[in-house]
Amino acid sequence: MNDDLAALAARIDHTNELLQRMLAEVAKTPSTHAIFVDAGYLYAAAGRLVAGTEDRRAFDLDTEGLIEALIDRARTIFADSRLLRVYWYDGARRRIHTAEQQSIAELPDVKVRLGNLNANNQQKGVDSLIRTDLESLARHRAISDAALLGGDEDLVSAVEAAQGYGARVHLWGIEAPEGRNQAEPLLWEVDSQRTFDLDFFKPYVSRRTAAAYEAAGARPTREDVRFVGAQIVAKWLAARGRESLVELLPGHPYLPGSVDQDLLVEAEGLLQYSLRGQADLRRALRDGFWEHLQAQY
């Protein structure tokens, strides 16, 4: 009997020793935080606050400077924590990076995630990307704290998922000129809230001059539009592969309605100009598309 008690006591001592070692290792492991930025919310709210408009074409955003400012602010808030990275969520036609998104992706410690952008310039799939990353990082104990810059009610499930694995989620917002620009259910769910004011964003948002803004909407030339048609098919080929577009060749010079509509919408986004009712420019767009496509086969 005494031998059994001694063996049990030895096992308990061994277990306690293992627990103490584990706790010591945990104590030596630094806390880690990540910043999650919903770019759609950022552009709309910061543009409204500083430039008085949500139209991205009407103002410039110094994304590199702003991201560095957010990282610096996080260092102050999470003083005993290290940064994992900044996650930047935005929308793009067919999830193909724009030049601006590519420059953001090249910044150190920044990961760009792209949802789709529909014909009405509305982001689709961004909230689900945020939830996937938040949940995965929390589940694998990659982060202890998440700073979420966003305002959509659909982000509530992302917050709940991360909290379910023990991560704390801190909601960052942008001052609204009037009312609120963040959903109340989201405010209720997070562990803390923080709002950045006009002075914080002023150095990074600048309204474009009237001349620059009007130039962005000036009627492009036929050669400009032809080039964009070629540019789009080159992107599609790179993203989908040659086999995906070869079936279009027998239909030349006509494109299926859905493909023609996608081409039109993407071209308007690149040109920042509506091609509706512009028959000559629509023809130039298709000509550029076909010329580049046929040259690849």
How does this structure look, described?
- The protein has helices at residues 2-28, 39-51, 63-77, 99-105, 126-139, 156-164, 184-189, 198-201, 210-216, 222-240, 257-271, 279-295, and strands at residues 31-38, 59-61, 81-92, 110-117, 123-124, 145-149, 168-174, 192-196, 205-207.
- Helix 10 (222-240) crosses helix 12.
- It is built from twelve helices and nine strands.
- The protein is globular.
- It is 52% helix and 18% strand.
- With 297 residues, the chain is of the alpha/beta class.
- Helix 6 (156-164) links the parallel strand 6 and strand 7.
- The strands form two sheets. A seven-stranded mixed beta sheet has the order 5-4-3-1-6-7-8, sandwiched between helices. The chain has a two-stranded antiparallel ribbon with strand order 2-9.
Briefly characterize the structure.
This protein is of the alpha/beta class and 297 residues long. Helices cover 52% and strands 18% of the residues. It has 12 helices and 9 strands.
Note the main attributes of this structure:
single chain, 297 residues, alpha/beta, two-stranded antiparallel ribbon, globular
Mean pLDDT: 85
Radius of gyration: 25 Å
How many helices? The count is 12
Number of strands: 9
End-to-end separation in angstroms reads 86 Å
SSE arrangement, N to C: HEHEHEHEEHEHEHEHEHHHH
Secondary structure: helix percent: 40-55%
Uncertain stretches of 5 or more adjacent residues: none
Shape field: globular
- Strands in their spatial order, largest beta sheet: 5-4-3-1-6-7-8
Structural class: alpha/beta
Q: Determine the strand fraction and express it as a percent band.
A: 15-25%
Oligomeric state, counting identical vs distinct chains: single chain
Largest sheet composition: 7 strands, mixed
